[in-house]
Amino acid sequence: MKINKIIAFVIVAFLLSLFSPSAGLAEKKPDKDIEIPSHVLDISKENTYPNSTEDQEVVEPSELTQELLDEMSIPIENPDLIKMLNESSISPSPISIGYRGMIYLGRWALNYNSEESNINWEYQQINMNELNNLGGDTPQNMNYIQQEQKEIKGALTNKIADPDDIKKMMLLKAKGKTKLPLSYNTIIGKNTKKDNSYGVPVKKYGELQAYAPAVNEKGQVTFGEVYVKLKGSKKSIEIKNVTKQGIGAWIPIQDHISFSFQLK
């Protein structure tokens, strides 16, 4: 009898596992940190131009704002909109029975959903060093020296409303995903040097090309008309006429250079 009960229990457990919502689903693995290739070097200490870190302001919602956001089905991540809601001093009177009102705050970019983040390690060529050892009788070494100051600019890849707000949200998402020092504007100073050495044998001509890498960020922006709804002593946020639009951006990686060495 005990054996029959054990067998029955095993069969039931097996059947339940088949109909379990997680049955057949692979366990989600956390995103791996992006590995920087060996030919890409950090020049933050050697760069003769001191780039300032582009730290985006992270606006924390106030207690009241957070309560309003928690009640919404559409997330609001736009820091400028959150800041406006924090500064709102609209407080309906507790005795305003029957009072109703709608305050229009404008049409906003509400949030950005990142769908893809890829890196082009050779986004823009910024320098080339050469060494001619065709007539030499001993091997020579060459090093990287930045010939001219170079400014690398990022940008959105297509036109869209509220571009500044969207660039901020995209930068925050891309930084969080890649864990890289990203900025829409970075400069490599003239005479920046690196100790990496490349050998040029006899009867050879060496070229050392340097590139600025950048992240290609792609995703979708949600727009909507934002209203503050007042009803008696209660206040809430209402979003109307919601639309979505795909967007992409190139965001340079600050103080990093990708090297390509060739012998001819």
Estimate the helix proportion, in percent.
10-25%
Number of extended strands: 10
Query: What is the overall silhouette?
Result: elongated
If you average the pLDDT, what whole number results?
84
Structural class by secondary-structure content: alpha+beta
- Listing every helix as H and every strand as E from the N terminus to the C terminus, the arrangement reads HEHHEEEEHEEEEE
Distance between the termini: 84 Å
Count of structural domains: 1
- Tell me the major beta sheet: 6 strands, antiparallel
Query: Uncertain regions: pLDDT < 50 for 5+ in a row?
Result: 1-31
Query: Total helix count?
Result: 4
Rg on CA atoms, Å: 28 Å
Strand content: 35-45%
Question: What does this protein look like?
Answer:
The chain is an alpha+beta fold and 264 residues long. It has one domain (34-263). 19% of the residues lie in helices and 44% in strands. The protein has four helices and ten strands. The protein has helices at residues 2-19, 63-70, 79-87, 163-178, and strands at 40-42, 100-133, 140-145, 150-153, 155-156, 185-188, 193-200, 204-231, 234-252, 256-263. Strands 1, 2, 5, 8, 9 and 10 form a six-stranded antiparallel beta sheet that branches. The chain has a two-stranded antiparallel ribbon with strand order 3-7. A two-stranded antiparallel sheet has the order 4-6. Strand 8 (204-231) and strand 9 (234-252) form a beta hairpin. The chain is elongated. InterPro entries: YfkD.
